[in-house]
Design a protein that fits this description.
The structure is a single chain. This protein is an alpha/beta fold and 386 residues long. Helix content is 34%, strand content 23%. It has 9 helices and 16 strands. It has a 6-stranded mixed beta sheet. A 4-stranded antiparallel beta sheet has the order 10-11-9-12, with helices on one face. A hairpin with a 6-residue loop joins strand 1 (44-48) and strand 2 (55-61).
């Protein structure tokens, strides 16, 4: 473990100690990053969110101009509620070459590496800037970064290239699936459970809808596929459900949430239309009992697929810096798609294995941090030699 990696480990311990679950404030964490950068002569801007409890962070090292490289990562993490951790998830634990803690892999390890490299960046005679681009609310649909991107070229310099550090085992990722999130709300009619004919069970109707989605899911596995992705098909998941009042009451309402991870070019809204058509077949029988019964499905989130096929400048740079000649595609989403839409050539490459992300006993291997530190050093070499 290099001295810089040791510094990254110390910084990571501090970052992990901040509970930045997306539903909670990240202001203390963002303030720590800002103050750390200030001790090394780097002025960072906090960009507050409208909700008053979150903020993005942006800083420039080197020439304060457009162009250069944005080092992008998110400060928020997923909840630990209900997970069986062996240790305190917000205390970094080192064991057998691994660093355990919520966010150690996804993706505070990358943030710590960037911060540990700041003293080195400051010593360089950079020809183009290196921008620190840290966001909030990535874990709830990559939404927090969007207002910061909107300031690129206006109140903030616009990076030419963006290196997103989501966990890829330091492999170069040039494509990922898109994500859609839906909410289906069923309105039934309550009644005493001894008189079921007087009510409409919203839970039973939701069960029929979920069964229909399961049939669609099985069909999707055999339709459009791409061997670049794992899994190679468009996937569908029902993730949350809530409904009912008591064991002796026909449930008058039920809501469930479902999502899709889709290949580039796939029309996920077509699946919503299929479910809407199936819902329409159920409504007449429901409304024969109670005219106000209803089924409503809404699209509550969308993250476009990402592919650098049309602009491979960032991908080419990452391949060169990592000494690799092969790119990969992943099934999860990243902020790269929003940066690309804003005209910044983007790529994904960062420390850790996505299989550890969101899991109890989440960890990142110290060896991965070593690789990331070396990679960031080569980024600085490139920025100095331009």
């Amino acid at each position: 473990m290099s001295g810089t990696t040791a510094t990254a480990k110390d910084i990571l311990a501090k970052l992990v100690a901040f509970d930045t679950t997306s539903s909670k404030s990240n202001l203390a964490c963002a303030g720590y990053v800002r103050d750390y950068l200030a001790t090394h002569g780097v002025k960072a801007q906090l960009l507050p969110a409208d909700d008053g409890i979150h903020a993005n962070l942006f800083a420039t090292i080197g020439p304060e101009v457009d162009g250069g490289v944005g080092l992008s990562g998110h400060m928020d993490v997923v909840p630990v509620t209900g997970q069986a951790w062996d240790t305190d998830p917000f205390t970094l634990i080192e064991r057998d070459g691994r660093l355990y803690g919520r966010g150690a892999c996804d993706m505070k390890g990358y943030l710590a590496c960037i911060m540990a490299m700041v003293p080195d960046f400051k010593k360089r005679k950079l020809k183009v800037p290196l921008h620190v681009v840290f966001s909030y609310d990535e874990e709830v649909g990559c939404t927090g970064v969007k207002p910061m991107i909107a300031e690129f070229g206006a109140t903030l310099p616009k990076p030419r290239l963006i290196l997103v550090g989501e966990p890829t085992n330091m492999s170069v990722v040039d494509a990922h699936k898109g994500g859609y999130r839906f909410r289906t709300q069923v309105t039934g009619k309550d009644a005493h459970s001894s008189k079921p004919q007087l009510g409409v069970s919203a839970v039973s109707i939701a069960g029929a809808l979920i069964s229909e989605l399961a049939r669609i899911e099985q069909r999707l596995k055999t339709e459009k596929t791409s061997a670049r992705f794992d899994p190679p098909y468009n996937s569908l998941t029902v993730s949350m459900i809530e409904g009912g009042l008591a064991q002796n009451v026909i449930p008058p309402s039920c809501t469930f949430y479902w999502s899709m991870r889709v290949l580039p070019g796939f029309d996920a809204l077509g699946i919503k239309r299929e479910l809407d058509a199936f819902s329409a077949k159920l409504l007449p029988e429901m409304r024969a009992v109670w005219p106000d019964c209803n089924i409503v499905t809404e699209n509550i989130g969308f993250l476009p697929p990402f592919s650098s096929a049309g602009d491979a400048e960032a991908t080419s740079l990452a391949l060169s810096l990592m000494g690799q000649n092969e790119t990969f595609a992943v099934p999860y989403g990243t902020e790269a798609t929003h940066f690309q839409a804003a005209g910044c050539s983007s790529v994904v490459c960062g420390p850790g294995n996505i299989a550890q992300a969101h899991q109890p006993n989440e960890y990142v291997e110290i060896l991965e941090l070593d690789k990331c530190i070396a990679y960031l050093g080569r980024v600085a070499d490139w920025a100095e030699a331009r």
